[in-house]
Amino acid sequence: MSRDDLLLTNMRITSAVTEEVVKHSPDCIILAVTNPLDAMVQNIFQSSGFPRNRVFGMAGVLDTARYRTFIARELNVSVDDVQAMVLGGHGDDMVPLVRYTTVGCIPLTELLSQDRIDSIVQRTRDGGGEIVALLKQGSAFYAPSAAITQMVQAILLDRKRILPGCAYLEGEYGIDGLCVGVPVKIGGGGMEQVIEISLTDEEHAALRSSAASVQELVDVMASAKAEAG
Ligand SMILES: NC(=O)C1=CN([C@@H]2O[C@H](COP(=O)(O)OP(=O)(O)OC[C@H]3O[C@@H](n4cnc5c(N)ncnc54)[C@H](O)[C@@H]3O)[C@@H](O)[C@H]2O)C=CC1
Ligand SMILES: CC(=O)C(=O)O
User: Fold this and answer.
1) What is the maximum alpha-carbon separation in the chain?
2) Could you tell me the distance, in angstroms and rounded to a whole number, from the CA of residue 202 to the centre of ligand 1?
3) How does pLDDT run across 7-52, given as a tens digit for each residue?
4) Does the Cβ of 17 fall within 6 Å of ligand 1?
5) Is 90 annotated in the active site?
6) Ligand 1 atom with least separation from CA of 37
7) Cα dihedral sign, 84-38-23-10
8) Which of 3, 39, 166, 212 might form a disulfide with 57, Cβ 3.0–4.6 angstroms?
């Protein structure tokens, strides 16, 4: 089963849960984890009526942790010294930013061949499925919990951390009205700022393509809602 197969069932669940959350905790910050992640963040953002700083999603921190781990293992170095970020939707076309990946300040491209980098990027994209295949039932929980904890700590301790988060974009990166993974500043106000970094044409195209996959799911949800009246 892919993350997208969960779309309409989880849309109904997150809509119902959001309604209750908004009723009982109107000032809360919602950090969504449910898959398919970006579409669910979009659904929760729209259902809640909250401003965008109070609804965002966890995926990029997990995907980045996997990417950093695979690089650290390949180079036999501490994962603490691998700096990286994975953008885009939490799906098969997520966008590990190779150009911004460094190991102890050294660009990854100086340390690994393009073949090895490509293979790590692909393994990162397939990371969720790899765990599901090993577990046989259910999906990853240790690494997602650690990723959620980082984001919640950033909110509770007002840490102003720069992490990848799924945020509702309002024109940033040329994307308007869609929730996608981008670098964000997380603090006491929730998703306090979308950070825009410069991308090459190729990176930008990859981000747009990933966003297009999210848009497809959002369109399916809109049709289902329209049909249900
Ligand atoms: N964003 C990410 O990176 C990740 C996302 N996920 C997603 O997180 C979600 C949860 O995963 P797990 O905790 O492993 O699943 P799980 O099956 O262990 O837990 C789901 C929980 O939701 C509850 N639930 C079901 N329907 C409900 C409803 N209508 N109202 C309230 N609660 C309801 C169930 O009783 C169960 O306790 C899944 O959608 C999974 O794909 C999981 C890992 C990483
Ligand atoms: C379940 C999921 O989305 C993941 O492990 O990446």
Assistant:
1) 56
2) 34
3) 999 999 999 999 999 999 999 999 999 999 999 999 999 999 999 9
4) yes
5) yes
6) 1
7) negative
8) 166
- Structure token pair of residue 154: 């950033």
Catalytic residue among 66, 90, 125, 185: 90
Ligand 2 atom index nearest CA of 35: 3
- List alpha helices for 32-178, DSSP H: 37-48, 60-75, 114-125, 127-135, 142-156
In this predicted structure, the answer to whether residue 159 has a pLDDT above a threshold of 80 is yes
* Burial of residue 69, with CB atoms counted within 10 A of its CB: 0-12 exposed, 13-18 middle, 19 or more buried: middle
| Most ligand 2 atoms within 8 A of CB, residue of 5, 34, 62 to mutate | 62
Question: What is the best residue among 7, 8, 34, 217 to mutate for testing ligand 1's pocket, by most ligand atoms within 8 Å of CB?
Answer: 34
Whole-structure pTM value: 0.97
Residue 2 in this model has a pLDDT that exceeds 70 = no
Query: What is 140-178 written as a DSSP string?
Result: --HHHHHHHHHHHHHHHTT--EEEEEEEEEESGGG-EEE
Q: Is 190 left (phi over 0), alpha (psi -120 to 50) or beta?
A: left
Question: pLDDT tens digit string along 101-112?
Answer: 999 999 999 999
Q: Any residues with CB less than 8 A from the CB of 80 and at least 6 apart, and which? A: none
pLDDT-derived band at 6, boundaries 50, 70, 90: confident
- Residue located via tokens 């049709």: 223
Give the β-pairing of 106-107 and 86-87. unpaired
